[in-house]
Amino acid sequence: MSNYPILPLRHLAPLALLGVLLAGCDSAAKPDDKAPPAQVRVETVQAQPLAITSELSGRILAPRTAEVRARVAGVLLKRVYREGSDVKQGDVLFLIDPAPFKADLDSARATLARAEATRYQARLQDQRYGELVTDKAVSRQEYDNAHAALLQADAEVAQAKAALDRARLSLGYATVTAPIAGRIGRALVTEGALVGQNESTPLATIQQLNPIHADVTQSTRELTALRRALRAGELSQVGEDQAKATLIQDDGSAYPLPGKLLFSDISVDPSTNQITLRSEFPNPDLDLLPGSYVRVRLEQAVQPRGISVPQRAILRDSAGVAKVMLVDQQAQVVAREVVLGNAQGDRWIVNEGLQPGDRVVIEGLQHIKAGDQVQVDPTADANPIVQHNGQ
Fold first, then answer.
1. Is the dihedral of CA 365, 366, 370, 373 positive or negative?
2. What is the pLDDT of residue 230?
3. Which of 127, 157, 370, 385 pairs with 73 at a CA distance of 20 to 30 A?
4. pLDDT at 34 exceeding the cut of 90
5. What mean pLDDT is predicted for residues 354-373?
6. Cβ pair 283, 210 in contact under 8 A
7. How many CA atoms lie within 13 A of 147 on its CB side?
8. How far is CA 339 from CA 226, 354, 369, in A?
9. Domain 38-50+306-376, what architecture?
10. What angle separates helix 99-134 from helix 140-173, to the nearest 10 degrees?
């Protein structure tokens, strides 16, 4: 017979409940099944022609600028044009008092008439003496004097004609016209001012605004590296007449009308060690004004077999080293350092670190680390074709 006490049934119920709870705790302590691998989206790397672009800063310049000046001395009678308007070549801008120039013109005409009368008389005398010298009615010396007088009269007529032409020019200069077509600014003088006295007084400035130029500067170090890559065959040259230019506006957006590179300067600024590059842009609405600070993205070369990845695929460690996450054939994540080139839109050009066929993770980076097993999204293996013009 057992020596253990027999407990009543009312004491067995709490013990049974305690056993159930302990069993539940044991099952909760067991680890869950392994979580499924994270799903990522990848882009398969391809080598394709890529434009090598440089984003440079500079200023907007008018292709043609003309200072309207008073070319004769006189009192300004009237400003004909409206300030800030567009003018055509030859449009009348200012009127200078023409009265003294008309008087000079009349005087020059009278001087010419007198010179022509003198020449007429000298010609008649030369003809008479030419007949008489044959008959020896006058001496050879007298005939030579008459002929010299005729030559002198011809010179005086020529001089009088030149003075008449100058008087006509002066009278014409009293009406100041636009030397070029463009937009004219404010008047620098007012009616009643004496202009052109001992100097050609500036009256206004005309600037041609369509098309317009953008002058940017680039360091000789960058140009040297570009030329070295071209000589080594790593890049292909883009002709200046084919090089495209994109103007970046103040808000960071691209100017809607594309431009073109006109030329690169042949001299280096010794103070900055930079060279000037000029591009041209259409400006039909006159949105671009001279003196404005701008940035221009220039296509200077083409990398025949270039590699690029989306900017969101680039990670950086604490030292700032760029790297990407790759997915290998076993669906395992591998971290790889890369050397980046220029940015091209929303993508980075990769100079070193990637090969065609590599699968770069572009989405789901926040859920993975090197060594993880992942599941590649089968519905979207991003693989865009990037044209060599960067668009």
1. negative
2. 63
3. 157
4. no
5. 85
6. yes
7. 10
8. 17, 9, 20
9. Beta Barrel (2.40)
10. 160
Give CATH 2.40.420.20 domain extents, the chain.
Answer: 38-50+306-376
Q: 53-63+214-304 adopts what CATH topology?
A: Elongation Factor Tu (Ef-tu); domain 3 (2.40.30)
Nearest-angstrom CA–CA distance, 374 and 376: 6
Q: Where in the chain is the domain with CATH 2.40.50.100?
A: 71-96+175-207
Distance between CA 12 and CA 15 in Å, rounded? 5
* C-beta separation of 49 from 306 below 8 A: yes
CATH superfamily of 98-173: Helix hairpin bin (1.10.287.470)
Residue 79, both tokens: 């400003």
Residue 14 tokens read as: 């709490």
Q: How far apart are CA 212 and CA 293, in angstroms?
A: 13
**Is-contact 195 74, C-beta < 8 A?**
yes
DSSP string, 76-99: EEEE-SPTT-EE-TT-EEEEE--H
Q: Which two tokens stand for residue 299?
A: 């296509």
Q: Which helix (H) or strand (E) holds 104?
A: helix 99-134
Using a cut of 0.70, tell me whether the model's pTM lies above it. Answer: no
* Residue 313 identity: A
